[in-house]
Amino acid sequence: MSNALLRIEGVSKKYGPNTVLNDVSFDIGKGEVVGLLGDNGAGKSTLVKIMSGVVDSTVGDFFWDGKKIDRMSRDVTEKLGVETIFQDSALVPQMTITRNIFMGREMTNSFGFMKMKEMDAIAADVLDSVVTIEGIKSSKQLVSSLSGGQAQAVAIARAVHFKRSLLILDEPTSALAVRATEALLGYLTQLKGEGVSSVLVTHNLHHAFQVCDRHIVMNHGKKIMDARREDTSVEELTAAVVEGAVGLARFREGAF
Amino acid sequence: MSDNSPGHKGPILEVALPTEAIAVRRKPAGEPESFFGRLSYNMQFIRGRGPLEISIVLLVLLVGYITASLISPTGFAFLNPYNLSGVVSQSVPVLAILGLAAGILMISGEFDLSLGANITLSAIVFIQASEAAGMWVGIVAGIGTGVAVGLVNGAIVVFTKIPSFIATLGMSFFWMGAGIFINGTSPAALTTSREGTMEFLFAHDFGFFRSQLVWLIIIGIIVGFFLHRHRLGNHIYAVGGNPAAAEAISINTKKVKLMSFAIFGALVGFASILIAVRTSSIQPGGTATEDFTLFAIAAAVVGGTSLFGGRGSVIGIIVGATLIELIRNGLILAKAPGFYITLFVGVTIVLAAIFNKLMEGKAR
Q1: How many CB atoms lie within 10 A of CB B229?
Q2: Backbone dihedral angles phi then psi of residue B303, each to the nearest 5 degrees
Q3: Which end of chain A has fewer CB within 10 Å, C or N?
Q4: Could you give the 3-state DSSP secondary structure of residue A72?
Q5: DSSP 3-state assignment of B127?
Q6: Tens of pLDDT along A86-140?
Q7: CA dihedral B48, B49, B54, B55 (to 10 degrees)
Q8: Chain B: residue nearest A67 by CA?
Q9: How high is the ipTM of this complex?
Q10: Could you give the CA distance from residue A7 to residue A68 in angstroms, rounded to a whole number?
Q11: pTM score, whole prediction
């Protein structure tokens, strides 16, 4: 318990009469890659919004590194180092890679003017060293000239450079080609080595199964499964995601 | 609870890496060493971003004008000092400053169609305050009015989330009415206060150019450094280019948009002073200032500013404004009938927009 980076306890979220999340609890360990799975409407995206501080939970407690957090607001999550990379919308396509990497965290002199040369040099360094991205010529390139996979990689490189401690990737592979997906999943493994925890939100079980240490399956706002990779299988996860708690129970009856 | 503070425990850094440590300048791999090599290397990142292409068009046009004027100094009097100082250097700076105003707002992803009404109102306030309490009060009041109008428009757009197009279209009638409300229907005129300092500052003839051109250079440099080199300028591009990404990285998009509206208002207020001093009188509810709304947006578009936000540059917008005014000037010099002017400017705008669209994909 003490080595959990983020611990969520009894989180529920109601929109009017609708309960979107119902008493969800789990841990995210340090350097752990957690797969957050579930069909559409399972409550994944609400959970992502709560973890990144965009939306408040109705009830629930949060512990960061063992300490209670009063409220997961956007300011708090920013300070803690939570970074959410939403599919397609992490970067500004009309801006250069350098400006994207330093967006909102520009290196400036005391008058607020940006140190472009330093920023360019560091950005070039980040592109070379943090994650190896094929096919990028210069950090002065516009992001619109990159492929979807390269752009995702830049977003991840940015998070790593700024020492973010928890990366939440919302459906990162859904718009990517096969090779780009493989590269992206590779980065996640690389991140583990850097001690960064990440949550991979997806409904592609095969992608999740390749890289995640642990899988959490959501269904109709409830957590129905939380298993380490070695204790489960793609088939079991499929049953849980597609058919919910009933399907999971049936699968286990059949299996044992 | 003080021990909740996340900074003092674990591997979390509250600030970015101490990047000074890596500040040793390192050229990105593959960047050539020689001067011309670097120039052509950097050119590939400038190509397709607007200013380069439009500058070439402007250069071609200028060469044509100068040739025509040299061949026939009376038939096409472009190089005549009266034309250069009296027409070109009075009209280009005003349109360029208004283009910058509209352009900054467009980069942030918004429009303000009350620009013309804002000019009328700010100019009236400037004239009345100058006549009553002197020029300096007038300048502050004029620019202040521009900022106030911009901020009210901005607040309506940002907080109600109505598309700025329709919100400011409606507000433009309101501000037009406000001008008449303050001034009545007779023109507001500068009389004695225009003499001396005010004339020297805002409309003085230095032979081949006028004071307005000096103001354009000053404002162009300030706005350029702000937009392209300051972090707040960077945030304007981020918010206009992809609001969700800006929000995700904790940029306050509402604040940035309000700031853009305020800068817009300040530039419009300043331009209205230039207009008021040049013409000496302003007609409330008149169409002379109304026309500037679309011409300013046109200058920005011709200069490579995206209609969807996130793209545009100071040099591009100034070149765009110059191009429009030169076309206008050339048609007048060639003694074309008045309706030709709007016709040609219209075609230029549409061509520029199509060109921008084609270029958007090519930019690297």
Answers
A1: 18
A2: -80, 10
A3: C
A4: coil
A5: helix
A6: 766 788 988 989 999 998 888 889 888 999 888 988 888 888 776 666 678 788 8
A7: -110
A8: B4
A9: 0.78
A10: 9
A11: 0.83
Burial class (CB in 10 A: 0-12, 13-18, 19+), A33: buried
Smallest Cα distance from A253 to chain B, Å: 43
CA–CA dist B341, B328 (Å, integer): 6
Q: Which CATH architecture has domain B92-362?
A: Orthogonal Bundle (1.10)
At B219, list the tokens. 């404002």
Strands (E) located in chain B: 188-189, 281-282
Q: Is there a contact between A243 and A63 (Cβ–Cβ < 8 Å)?
A: no
Pairwise CA distance, residues A110 & B189, whole Å: 44
What is the distance between the alpha carbons of residues B250 and A53, in angstroms, rounded to a whole number? 11
Pairing of strands A222-228, A214-219: antiparallel
Domain at A4-255, CATH class: alpha beta
Find out whether A81 and B12 touch, Cβ atoms under 8 Å.
yes
Give B84's DSSP letter. I
Question: What's the token pair of residue A10?
Answer: 């009894």
Give the nearest chain B residue to A4 (CA atoms): B10
With an 8 Å Cβ cutoff, are A94 and B237 in contact?
yes
Task: Give the residue extent of every domain in chain A.
Answer: 4-255
Would residue A41 be called left, alpha or beta, if left means φ above 0 and alpha means ψ between -120 and 50 degrees? left
- B140-188 pLDDT, tens digit each: 999 999 999 999 999 999 999 999 999 999 999 999 999 999 988 888 8
- Give the DSSP letter string of A178-222: HHHHHHHHHHHHHHHHTT-EEEEEES-HHHHHHH-SEEEEEETTE
The CA distance from B344 to B350, in Å, is 10
Q: Give me the residues of B, 228-247, that contact A with CB < 8 A.
A: 229-232, 234-235, 237-238, 241-242, 244-246
A vs B: CB pairs below 8 A: 154
- CB nearest B12 (choices: A81, A86, A99): A81
